[in-house]
Design a protein that fits this description.
The chain has helices at 53-63, 68-85, 93-109, 119-125, 127-144, 151-162, 174-192, 201-216, 225-237, 239-252, 258-271, and strands at residues 2-8, 11-15, 21-25, 46-48. It is an alpha+beta fold. The radius of gyration is 24 Å and the shape is elongated.
Length: 275
């Protein structure tokens, strides 16, 4: 590997024999080194292989302004998240998350307190990501001696949720999605004038259905006569649940397919039953 660019003593851009470029980090890896010299590979501690060119270029720009210890810390948190969540994360997480943590620490050092109005919903709907966020706060405190507020764990969770899978124009922003799930649950509560059992399996299934429902928005729906037939039966049997579904459809300001109407009605019927 040959050094192509030096950010500081601990972070450089290298080029391998196949002319692929990577960002690598290691204590003193660029000390008394110049571009064009060979890299002491024994000093490499972290390697950033970003396949998306745009993400890679933006990440390199970040390295010019953000302390390398922050970048290294964020790398550790992201790798921890990948292992715990067992998911693939979009390359942009290295850019967006690192930039966010840098700004969060700046605000903290300035004595500015920030809050996340959706923290309760994030705890409920994305418990795994929120737990990773809490663990990330421990990482930050251990490495930097800064105790960020719990709301920051919710912010971190949102970054992890957004980074799962490929970015698509059809996907609703996760912050907006979380608010919409909350609003839909409230529509059900007020329609039935009940408190939903958040520990029930039907509640968990309903929330899971809504999460994937939002991911399907904007995709071409298939028309199925069987769904129309079943929907007519469900409409007749579960009138209140069907009317509640219509309220949700009005709130969403979209026309749902027969399939979506069917499953949404069934989930509403299940989540509102106490037996």
């Amino acid at each position: 590997m040959i050094i192509k660019k030096i950010f500081n003593n601990n972070a450089i851009v290298v080029k391998d024999s196949d002319k692929h470029e990577y960002v690598v980090m290691g204590c003193g890896i660029a000390f008394k080194k110049s571009p064009g010299e060979k890299v002491d590979e024994s000093l490499i501690e972290k390697t950033f292989i970003l396949k998306q060119k745009d993400a890679s270029e933006k990440f390199k720009l970040l390295l010019e302004d953000i302390p390398s210890e922050y970048v290294s810390l964020c790398y550790d948190i992201i790798e921890y998240a990948k292992n715990i969540l067992d998911v693939e994360l979009n390359d942009y997480i290295y850019v967006t998350f690192t930039d966010h943590i840098n700004n969060a620490i700046k605000l903290f050092d300035s004595g500015i307190s920030t809050s996340n109005p959706l923290i309760w919903e994030i705890k409920k709907f994305y418990p795994k990501e929120f737990k990773v966020g809490l663990k990330a706060l421990e990482f930050i405190e251990d490495e930097l001696g800064k105790q960020l507020p719990e709301d920051e764990a919710a912010n971190i969770a949102l970054h992890l949720i957004n980074a799962q899978g490929n970015v698509s124009n059809n996907k609703i922003d996760i912050t907006r999605q979380t608010k919409m799930v909350r609003d839909i649950l409230n529509i059900v509560k007020y329609t039935y004038n009940i408190v939903l059992d958040e520990k029930s399996i039907n509640y968990e299934r309903f929330v899971t259905h809504l999460r994937f429902f939002f991911q399907r928005l904007g995709q071409k729906e298939r028309e199925d006569s069987e769904d129309d037939f079943l929907l007519r039966q469900v409409k007749a049997k579960y009138k209140k649940a069907y009317n509640c579904m219509l309220r949700i459809q009005k709130y969403l300001e979209i026309s749902l397919s027969s399939e979506e109407q069917l499953y949404l009605t069934v989930h509403i019927q299940r989540v509102t039953q106490r037996n």
